[in-house]
Amino acid sequence: MTQGKDELALVRRVVTVVDIRSSTTTLEDLKQTDNLKRWRDLLIDLKKLLADSHATLGLEPYKFIGDGWVLLFPENVTKHRFMQFLVDFSIEFYSTFDSSIAPILQHRPEKVGLTFGVDAGELVQLEMNEQTEYLGRAINVAARLQGAAKDMEGSSNCQALFSKNSFNAMPSGIGYAPPVLRRVQVPLRNVANGERYECLAYEPLSDEQISLLPEV
Predict the structure, then answer these.
(1) Quick one: fold of 10-211?
(2) Cβ of 123: how many Cβ atoms within 10 Å?
(3) pLDDT at position 110 over 70
(4) Please, are residues 23 and 67 in contact by the beta-carbon 8 Å criterion?
(5) pLDDT-derived band of residue 156, with 50, 70 and 90 as boundaries?
(6) What is the 3-state secondary structure (H, E, C) of the chain?
(7) What is the pLDDT at residue 193?
(8) Pick from 155, 60, 49: which is nearest to 95 by CA?
(9) What value does the mean pLDDT take over residues 150-172?
(10) Are 146 and 115 in contact (CB under 8 A)?
């Protein structure tokens, strides 16, 4: 456990908070038909993809938060590989959801998908109760951005919001093709001091692309 006398441990990470839209509604529907195992299996499937990404990207699945994750990427992750991760993760979610869960739902929620919030910066790393924990503004901002992505009017089912700092700090990487990004302004409680926060909106998958995905 980290002690007060220990030197402050600082690390730089790209923080990504991901949330599954309408998870509470979906869980209640599955509970009514005794099909909660389908949801558990979906989460296990996504967890496996995160584990694979640890080996290829250095991704650390820091925390599971019930209907999503806090993910930490190394500060030198490239735009090319990061954006591809968002696409791959989204494809895995939708393909599995549509094949395993959608057919047994009594009522499909209006919004089904993923929202991402992304920021980058310095974090304090410490040991608490034999676990590695992180503290820092980037985690708070990423969480706020994810919430804003979910609340954006007219947003697609799959939506990511980047702080300008996090996107600009990533090196491009080999094979990088600039994605379609929109500058948007969103309210971020306890972050923007009452002002609207300017960030970058990105759709890993459009609603049209989602509708064309094959089931797995």
Answers:
(1) Alpha-Beta Plaits (3.30.70)
(2) 21
(3) yes
(4) yes
(5) confident
(6) CCCCCCCCEEEEEEEEEEEECCHHHHHHHHHHCCCHHHHHHHHHHHHHHHHHHHHHHCCEEEEECCCEEEEEEECCCCHHHHHHHHHHHHHHHHHHHHHHHHHHCCCCCCCCCEEEEEEEEEEEEEEECCEEEEECHHHHHHHHHHHHHHHCCCCCCCEEEEEHHHHHHCCCCCCCCCCCCEEEEEECCCCCCCCEEEEEEECCCCHHHHHCCCCC
(7) 74
(8) 49
(9) 92
(10) yes
For residue 49, the Cα-to-chain-centroid distance in whole angstroms is: 13
Between 192 and 72, where is the model more confident?
A: 72
The encoded tokens of residue 211 equal 């509708």
The number of CA neighbours under 13 Å toward the Cβ of 152 is 29
Those residues with Cβ within 8 angstroms of residue 9's Cβ, 6 or more apart along the chain or in another chain: 2, 124, 125, 126
CA angle 208, 213, 216 (to 5 degrees): 160
pLDDT surpassing 60 at residue 1:
no
Distance CA 35, CA 28 (A): 10
pTM of the predicted model as reported, rounded to 2 decimal places: 0.93
The residues spanned by each domain of the chain are: 10-211
Is pLDDT at 163 greater than 90 in this prediction? yes
